[in-house]
Amino acid sequence: MNLPTTETLLLEQKDHALHITLNRPKARNAMSLQMVHELMAVFESIKDDRSVRAVVLRGADGHFCAGGDIKDMAGARAAASNADEQNDPYYNLNREFGRMLTQVNSAPQVVIAVTEGAVLGGGFGLVCVSDVAITAESAKFGLPETGLGIPPAQIAPFVVNRIGLTQTRRLALLGARFDGTEAARLGIVHTVCSDEDIEQELEAVLTQVKRCAPEANIITKALILSVGNDELDNVLDHAARSFSDCVQGKEGQEGTMAFIQKRRPNWA
Predict the structure, then answer these.
(1) 77 has a pLDDT exceeding 80
(2) What is the domain partition of the chain in residue ranges?
């Protein structure tokens, strides 16, 4: 695996999982444009790497991510004074974050978010594109953008997809803050733990990922993400073709044989 060199991320592969730690602790891991680009580069580098079956996203020093980096906003403000309408630095800064969310959302791996401390703005959005989210009950979630006079522009569509229109309207338009227990109730995260139990829960999830056939997981995630983005008949036609290919493929044959022989399949 050839991972890019990163300054704002810590990278470590453990068995079948790549652990990505947002590492700007002095800024509570606020997401700079550099971090956005580094995340995009890492996900691009592993998209065809079948040795990486899961990606774990978390933050350094007790915080997940406190949102966007204010310094980048200041830099965009300085650049805006000399920019024309077609080269708007605010637009480019914001849109690049949306491209990163889209890339993480569609990654073939199982993306697992582990959240503690601040989970605000961009960090909130990153959780909403994970496949599995675990949180400490003491974590603090929120969409504070409207309180700063700006919209949660690139985040809002992913939040709507995660928890629905009604709750997203309430959270975004009130700039609400809430803890991990409420995040689980709303469906933003799947499991809420005490701070001491997070590692154990993460290991349990990674063990479950390992029991699932890698190619079947990739196909299943793509199928799920296609729902609502294509005509239903097209989705079902493609799903039937994928099913047929998998049944006749190596994983389908190995899975069936393992079941008959009452053993774990070779990918587990």
Answers:
(1) no
(2) 9-209, 213-260
